[in-house]
Structure formats: structure tokens, C-alpha cells
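Encoded backbone
================
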Amino acid sequence: MGMTELEQQEQHDQEMIQAAFEDVLVAYSHSAHRQKLDLVEKAFHFANQAHKGIRRRSGEPYIMHPIAVALIVVKEIGLGSTSICAALLHDVVEDTDYTVDDIENLFGKRIAIIVDGLTKISGGVFGERVSEQAENFRKLLLTMSEDIRVILIKIADRLHNMRTLGSMPPAKQYKIAGETLYIYAPLANRLGLFSIKTELENLSFQYEHPETYTQINALIEALAEENEQIYKEFKAPIREKLEALGFKVDLKERVKSVYSIWYKMQKKNIPFEEVYDLLALRIVFEPKEGMTEQEQCWLIYSAISQLYKPHPERIRDWVSTPKANGYSALHVTVMGPHGKWIEVQIRSTHMNEVAEKGLAAHWRYKTGERDDETELDRWLKELKEELKNPTPSAIDFMDNVKLNLFASEMFVFTPKGDFKTLPQGATALDFAFLLHSDIGFKCIGAKVNHKLVPLSHVLQSGDQVEILTAKMQKPQPEWLDFVITSRAKTKLENALRKELTIVAHHGQRMIEEELKKVNLTPTSEVIQTLLDYYNLNEKRELYRQIGKKLIDVTDISKNVFKAKPKNLLKKFVTLQFGSSDNKKVPLIKKKKKVDRKKTFQLTDETSSKTFRIAQCCQPIPGDDIVGYVDDNEVVVVHKRQCPEAVKLQASHGDRIVSAEWAMHKEKSFAVTLEMKGIDRLGMLREITNVITDEYSVNIQSINIETDAGIFSGSLHVFVHGTDDVNNLCLKLMKIKGMNSVKRVEL
């Protein structure tokens, strides 16, 4: 009986596998690629045999994952047979006894190279240790610069993993979601895969902030009917007008994604109601003969602006100068029905395809011919150059490369009128390094629109920039404070490393001397206390700042350890130096290891020896949190949305633990509230009355400024958790004239 059940299971599995593979073949048959069905089927049968009997954590046959990745590769990214085969085979080398040579013998060199590239960067971008992570990240970028399809399949692989993340334990979910937000979503964006980027962000957000995700989603749902009505009224005259002009158009509505709404709310510290660009209408037109696509975009814009009033500052022209990732469209925001601003995106069918599937899908291997050098080519070339001499610190290196992934672009002109693409916020010095590293090193200033400006001058889109150099000029350490492009950072860091090492060594010696005065040695606990005190993240940065005399080193003996007799370290000091028999007592006892698999509970009893609150984001009970286990087995608690936490989840995945509050209102936490409203007599008295009536809240300080009848103020209070904050905000909002009260997110 058991046997027949097993046979039934096998038969059911094979039918499911075959049906999933049929979906891939159907999607492939609808693509414009040459149909190499034999090769694709051969890859499928080979992979199916290799993974036979192996199951995923979710319980389904393992081969379902490679098939799902192959479907994303062909259907959502638009790649051909080489990529489909590589996707089907991408786990064979890692999980079975087959080698890359076997793949090459059976499927040829190109597929083998891609599978090899994917094998090298398997298991997420990162291994267990930081040095390996840096190496893996370099491998990812190197294989990408050799063949862009490696990273495209890797993104498809990550997308499927994110879609099936529910079967993973929470700590693993945070690690994978953090890594996705930190690396894969920006990479997908840089390669023009907008819908995949949006889905990756949304899925990561869903796992990191499930409650907030549900709340925002519910708010969007609540507006769905009203929005549908607005679209209906908005679209009808546009369709009529464009069809009268002879255009064949497809009108698609878009509501901003949950993640991007939340991101905007966080960044601008605004409630959901104040996110104005919720609605967008996409107009995709079939180009007409005899006119350029650019001219037709402007013609459609002209027709729309006759129907609806455009917002003068909200026109984005990506048609004349497309984004570096190939995105081309004309965006205009107009005042629609019911007093709602609506963004209209105007694209041709070709522009839309590039926007949906990314520039890479239209890259040279589609035709086999070499086109003119694209922005993507230039970016990959720059990446290769950067990989030759990466920054030694894994995290710095990733940060540098990420700068170029995230940044939105602007266009700057040379004196001769050529335009260069730079990320928003770039300075004159970034531009100098973009031209040539020697120009960067010798740069003394610049002329922007014929006016003299310093190196640190932030450029605006459309500026014309001339760089001024001097032979005697040498790169300065403070330049690192105002360059933002990874190219400039990497070049500068390499040039300054020797000098900075000397400065850092000097700073380290100064710290050691100062610590001797209070009978301390620079253990990791002591250094962490100093980092918290000076609000720094890295030991190296602490050494540098002290070496450069930017920090007063005497503070260490006068204030840091002097003024804190209750400091944990002081207890250890008495152990070491206060024992009557002169035996050496170890400074810090061996800590009990934190169980990474369990959820770490923050209770009133949990002592400060086992956890500490991160200074960068200062979470309080009620906030979504995540834990990071440091070298001393102390859990550092961050808000899940804290940039530092996202970075740690991406780079130290093995040290991430899920954490939750289990406090019983004994401990207090500092928060800052921001208030705005109409000023009137007795306002301050009413505010203080509300706070003093709220027994669970303790006031630290209050600052209020008034200007032309409007007041703004900040309130520093101690609370037990987010419930206290929400109650206080609600009560303050009841005061007549109060317009907004919100917690300031660090």
C-alpha cells in the first residue's frame, strides 16, 4: 500500500513539474527569440534528473525552483534560450555531483560560464564571514561585468526566493529581506527592471514590517473605489483627444506601491494623507510614421495640458536624455478631477518595453551585433575598473558601489557642451573624478555657469562645469566628506590610505595612552562605549578622528569613564584592579552564546549585559525590531527600517536574530515629538497640562518657536513604548489650533 502511495506521489510530482515546464515553453514560444526548443528541453530533462528526489523547505520538488526562475527569466525579463537553460541548470553544480565541465560538454561554453558565475555567488551574495562576503560581492560584480545575464538570472532567482520566503524562519527572513533591499532591489533598478524592483521592495517590506504593510494596504484599498471613479473621469477626455489626433493608445492606471508610499512617509515624515502622488496614468502609444517618438511624446503632452493644468515644477523629461538605465519617458503632473494631482507618464511601445524589462534585455546578445556603447556598457566598464582595486573593508566597498546603484541622476555639461551623467547630490570634485582621476587629484576649484565655486559645491542638473587644477595640489582627507560617487570615493581612499593609516595608528596610540590613566585597556566593550559616546559606527573612524584631532582625546579620562561610575565597565575594572590578592581577574567573563534560532525576548529582567539599544535609531517598545549579535554575544537592538540594520542584515546575516519586546512598563525610553499649529494665548500651558496629566509620560524638555502666528515645537519625553506615544499624540491633537504631532524618526 505504502509503495502505491509513493508511486502516486511521484506521478503527481511529475505531472506538476511537467505542467510548470509547459508554462516556460509557452512563454518562450511567445517571445521574439529564435526557438531552440531542443536545447531548452535537454536542459530541463538534465536538471530534472539531477535534482530527482530532493525537496525544498516548502515540501515541493526542488526542480520547481529552477523552473520558476526560468519562467521569470523568459516572461518577466524577456531573455532567450541561453538564459533559460542557465536558469534551469543554475543549482545543479552546487547541489549535485555534476561539475561546470559536465555542463560545458553538454550545453556549450556560454551556458557553462553563466552557470559557473551563478554557482560562485550562490547562497545569497554573502557567506558567513565578512571577508568572504566582500569576495562574494566582488565575484557577483565581476561575473556581471563579464556577462550581464548572470546578474539578471540571479535577480530572477532572488525574486522567486522572495515570493516563497514564508517557509523560512524569521531570522532568515530578515537576513534575506535585508539583503534584497540592500543589494538586489537597487541592482534591478540600475538594470531598468522596474516592476521586479518594485516587487522586491514590497516583498521585503512585507516581511520586515507585516503590520505596517497591512495598514498601508488597507488605506490604499479603502481609496480603490474613489480612485477608480477619478481615473474613469480623467481618462475619457484624454482617450477621445488622442484618438482624434490619430494615436493608437493604451491607458493604464498605476497606484504607488506600498513600499514607496511608506518610504516617502518616512523620508518626509508625513502621514499617508499627505502622499500626493498616489495616482499615475501611463499612456503607451504606437509611434506614427514621419515623426520622431520624442516629437510625438511632446505632442501628446501638449494635448493633455489643454485638458488639464500641469504642475509647473513637476515635468520630468526622460525623453531628450534617458536615464542611465535606459528608461525613457515624459512625466507630467496635472490637476485632475476632485482636486487630485495625477502623474501622467507618456511612453512609446518601445520605451514601455525597455521600462518593463530593462535595458539589459535589449542588449547586444539579442541580435548578436555590437551596438554603440550604451550607458550600461559604460557603467560595467567603470565597475570593472573599480574592481581592480577595491576598498579593503567589505562594507565600505559595498557602500561605494551601492552609491551608484541608488542615486537618481542629473545631467551636467562640460565647457564644450558635452553632457555627463552624475548622481543627484554630486559635487564639483565628483565631476572632476568623472573626467579623469588625475584631474580629481589636482582639482583646486571649479567654475559653475562661469562663477567660481569650491570643490564641495553641489551641482544642479543643467550646470555647465569647468574644473580648475594646479600641479601642486594633493588629495586631502576631508575631500572624502563631500564626494558621493563611488568612483571618486574609491580613487581617493586608495590615494589616501597610506596617509590615513598613519593618522589612525597615531589616534589608536593616543586612545591607549588616555585609557591607561583610568586603568583600562582597549577591549571591544571599551571601544564600543567610546563609539556610542562619540556617535560613530566604526573603530577605524574613531582612530582617524582622534588622530586628526577632530575629537578631544582627554574627554576619555575626564568624561566618558569618569562621569559614569555606574558604567558596566567600571564594575569590571574593580574586578581587575581592586582584588586584594594581586591575581589577575579576567576583565570580561566569557559570555553565554545567544541562540540565533530563537526569538530574543527583551524583558525588564533582561540585563544590559545581554542587550543594548542601538544609538542610531533608538527603538522603543512597540517598534518593529531586529537584533544583531556583536562580538561579545550582546544583542544590539535596531529598528527594522534603520539603514544600519538593513546593512547589517545584508552583510552579517549569520548574526541576525529575530527580537521582540516583552517589557512590563518598568523601563523608560526617550523620544522626541514634533508639533505644529496656530499660535494663541495659553497654548504652551495647555500642552504642558496634557503632558502632566499623562501619568505614563515623563517630560525632559520642551522648545517652542513662533513665527507670524504659526508655532512649531519639539517635545522630549520619556515613555514606556509606542502606545504611550500614540496616546500622547492623540491628546495633544485635541488642543485647539494644533495641526500636527508626530514622533521624530531618527
Observations:
- The chain is about 50% helix and 15% strand.
